[in-house]
Amino acid sequence: MAGTTELVVSFPGGKRVDARIGSHLVCTDQPEAGGGAGSAPTPYQLFLASVGTCAGIFVLGFCQQRGLATDGIRISQRAHHHPETGALAEVEIDVEVPPSFPEKYREALVRVADQCKVKKAIQVQPPFRVRTVVR
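RESULT FIELD:
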């Protein structure tokens, strides 16, 4: 996937901040304790979910290509934060499989989950340019 991906962010009310990506609307909100309605994940929760679901799409594709059942497979992800700064310090991703899942494919699931494009984007630390534009 080369080129530019554009999304447009809008403010529909309260603490909601939504993003339109093509024909999709991604909604975020703040928890009630933060002044929101808790109607959607926070942007940070959505970021963390993008890591887990990205790993999941690679695991799903691996299993589908080999005709392996995905019943009982799930991704368990834990985000650890620095105790003083609150910054993301480590992300653990476990690909959980049932006992019946073929042992010969278990390590391969780790390798394919590791191909997650979201994780790779974070690891290369692309620069961010933020500016004000008058339209």
